[in-house]
Known about the structure:
With 65 residues, the protein is mainly α. Helix content is 60%, strand content 0%.
Amino acid sequence: MIYSYLKLGPRDGVMLVSVIIMLVLTLVFKWSVWEFLFSVVAVIIAFLAGNMKPDKKNVLAFLKR
Length: 65
């Protein structure tokens, strides 16, 4: 890999492809800069929300004592 210090994975590739798709849609449908930025922010928020893991803390552990 040319840029091995970046450590990009498949999730980063998916996010990059989605941002490129947003750029193409911006150019084809003549969106404004604000619409492009809002769509990119929405993609980034969805990407970060998908990476969140649920807390596996056992809430009722005190009952097992």
